[in-house]
Design goal:
19% strand; alpha/beta; 29 strands
Length: 708
């Protein structure tokens, strides 16, 4: 254990056994002092400790909060490297290093609490190593071909009728064929799991009878969250997680973990002492000039001191473990800007980013940044270096604003639909540097986005003050539930518009589990503490024809994306002609069927046509052959009234075949729905149309679809 400033470290082994006390069986604790100290690492060898044994540490040192020293050997501490954790955090007063209920709260953190915390805290579990992954085949999906599906292990499986009840809410439930079948049928290539590192529930939630559902409160960076295991918590959760990964890999689906290395569950100076605070508070956490206080770039009370080499080592050791031992394929880093800070400012040459860039394991997996934190200068969208992709909130905001009629023109929308070259076309980055999303776990669901103008978070117990008020939503004329058929029809159309836009845009699309079937949280846009039907997916929605049709449309759009390389471009479009006839790889059209001029981009408009040419894609097939594809015209119209749109004539096309029309409740477009080029078509209010181009002249190169 790295505890540079400590005076002594004790390993504490636990057995279940009878004690001579009236309350019956209690844990027996055996304390063994680590006698060796080498390069700030306390170590020792204890023979005979077998898998399944529970353990923790007690660390001795000075109690001097004014200088940041918070050692307290009365507190049993989790091993930061524990592979499994047994038990849950209830956070009674004994778990705090200071006297939690001291009358003068402004100095409470300076008064040491000497009560033993061991009976009240989880323990690490010794786990057998050496699992053989020879039967596993990683899908290795190229970034440009990826479709991410953000889901919660518990919420995705808790109400699924095809999953046995004993497996619901668990890794085994997600591995069940009924769960995997939905992912395959939908056509996603990766699941992005909300945090599965072992986490604790915040004290303020426990006092209100709630729990942390999302899990952004990590305390065990190597341990799968024990509550998600059907096989028990004495190490069985490790094997169960591995079997889940294997099952998803066998179905061609990658596993990406949402990881929280920016802060821990120990919160600020008034938080509990669970692990790092009691090991070496001054080195694991960023402290202010007043060393009693924590530098908080996360809004969660503390920030890990990633500039410290051994803290950085803890993080990278954890990441490598999840790749090499647990089989995962990538990571999404919560508040990644906090990890990129050097002393204070965000620095794209920071130790964390530098280590990732040269690591032979980590530089080869998928790396996704949430490119902001809550500190000064923390908004870094478009600034992360090559190798990284980013959550693109500029995409989210532009698409939401367009479809609710709040964009003054279509300039920003054009960038977002075509890969956000204004943000990412530097340093050899590609369009897949942009993870496009309209919704995420944090905020409204897609259905709530078109059903609510205001958040409704009363169930969280914070007076509806929590959660953002900048939702860029539109309720289509009625707040929340309604029986008005016109409002309901418009909402369903808006859902089709938003999904169609997301899945036809250049970049990597990210869907949120349940959005494809109209999941609702009743207007709660911060359901982080709602471990109930508010957050769990209601699979009965698929029995409703309207929501089943939405899921089928989502699958159909993903199948189109998968079949056509031009819809998942590896390179940014040039916008220049690639042939003598003047056809561009990307062109923009007005409703009059003319190419957009600079003045058109600045003029108020709610309609845009995007033409993607598949005739000369700048990539090669598996044998070096040219890759060509169909060409497509997408027409997006967010206006409240119909508009005639002239389909561009030669050389762009001779005719157009309609594939998708979001104005229709059911996408059963009759075969042969073809319109001649050069003529107008009626675009209904607030709708999206996808047309396949019939070329004006035959392409000289035979089409090769689906090449990577």
């Amino acid at each position: 254990m790295w505890a540079a400033g400590a005076e002594a470290v004790e390993l504490c082994l636990f057995d279940d056994g009878p004690e001579a006390e009236p309350d019956g069986p209690r844990e027996r604790e055996t304390r063994l002092r680590l006698e060796e100290l080498t390069h700030e690492i306390w170590h020792g060898f204890v023979p005979g400790v077998l898998p399944g044994r529970r353990y923790g540490y007690r660390v001795h040192g000075r109690w001097d909060p004014w200088t940041g020293a918070r050692w307290n050997p009365a507190k049993l501490l989790l091993d930061p490297y524990a592979r499994a954790i047994d038990g849950d955090f209830s956070l009674p007063p004994e778990v705090y290093g200071h006297v939690r209920d001291w009358p003068q709260q402004y100095v409470a953190d300076t008064v040491r609490d000497d009560r033993d915390s061991a009976p009240h805290v989880p323990k690490g579990v010794v786990v057998a190593d050496g699992d053989d992954w020879s039967d596993d085949r990683r899908p290795k999906i190229p970034w440009a071909d990826s479709v991410i599906y953000e889901l919660h292990v518990r919420g995705f499986t808790m109400r699924h009728p095809g999953i046995p009840e004993r497996l619901r809410g668990t890794y085994a439930g997600l591995a069940h064929p009924a769960a995997v079948e939905h992912l395959v049928r939908l056509g996603v290539t990766a699941v992005e799991l909300l945090p599965v590192h072992h986490f604790a529930h915040e004290d303020h939630l426990l006092r209100r009878g709630l729990r942390n559902y999302w899990g952004y409160n990590s305390i065990g960076y190597f341990a799968p969250h024990a509550a998600y295991a059907a096989t028990g918590t004495r190490g069985g959760q490790v094997g169960e997680f591995k079997r889940m990964v294997r099952a998803l890999h066998a179905a061609g689906i990658e596993v990406i973990l949402d990881v929280v290395y920016n802060h821990t569950a120990e919160s600020g100076e008034l938080g509990p002492t669970l692990s790092l605070r009691g090991i070496d508070n001054r080195r694991y956490y960023r402290l202010q000039g007043d060393a009693r206080r924590y530098a908080d770039y996360t809004g969660c009370g503390n920030t890990l001191h990633v500039v410290q080499p051994n803290v950085l080592r803890l993080i990278t050791d954890s990441l490598r473990y999840w790749v090499t031992e647990m089989g995962v394929d990538g990571f999404r880093f919560d508040l990644a800007a906090a990890l990129a800070r050097s002393l204070h400012d965000v620095d794209m040459l920071s130790p964390f980013l530098a280590v990732i860039a040269q690591d032979p394991v980590l530089r080869r997996v998928k790396l996704i940044a949430e490119p902001w934190d809550v500190g000064s200068g923390g908004y870094q969208v478009g600034a992360f270096p090559p190798l990284w992709t980013e959550w693109n909130d500029r995409y989210r905001d532009a698409v939401r604003d367009f479809w609710r009629g709040a964009l003054p023109d279509v300039r920003d929308l054009g960038y977002r639909l075509s890969g956000s070259s204004d943000l990412y076309a530097w340093g050899g980055r590609r369009p897949y540097a942009s993870v496009n999303f309209v919704t995420a776990h944090d905020g409204f669901t897609l259905r709530d986005l078109v059903s609510h103008n205001q958040k409704h978070n009363e169930a969280n117990g914070e007076g509806n003050r929590d959660g953002t008020s900048d939702n860029r939503s539109w309720n289509c004329g009625a707040e929340g539930d309604t029986d008005d058929p016109a409002v309901l029809a418009l909402r369903r159309r808006q859902l089709r518009n938003l999904l169609g836009t997301l899945l036809l845009s250049t970049g990597v699309p990210m869907l949120v589990a349940g959005d494809e079937m109209g999941r609702t949280q009743g207007g709660n846009n911060n359901a982080y503490c709602q471990d109930d039907e508010t957050s769990w997916i209601d699979w009965s929605l698929l029995e409703d024809p309207a929501w089943r049709d939405l899921a089928e449309l989502t699958a159909r759009l993903l199948a189109l994306r998968r079949a056509h390389p031009v819809l998942r471009s590896h390179s940014f479009f040039s916008g220049r002609p690639r042939a003598a006839d003047g056809v561009r790889d990307l062109a923009w059209f007005t409703p009059a069927g003319t190419e957009m001029t600079e003045a058109d981009w600045y003029a108020p408009s709610a309609t845009l046509g995007m033409y993607l040419s598949g005739r000369d894609i700048p990539r090669r097939g598996p044998r070096g052959e040219p890759v060509t594809d169909d060409s497509f015209l997408t027409v997006l119209h967010a206006g409240a009234g119909p508009v005639p749109f002239v389909l561009p004539g030669p050389p762009w096309a001779s005719a157009y075949e309609l594939l998708v029309n979001t104005a229709l409740e059911v996408q059963a477009v009759p075969p042969g729905t073809v319109r001649p080029a050069g003529g107008p078509v009626a675009v209904r209010p607030r709708s999206l149309l996808l047309w396949r181009v019939r070329a004006a002249v035959a392409s000289p190169v035979r089409a090769h679809r689906g090449a990577s």
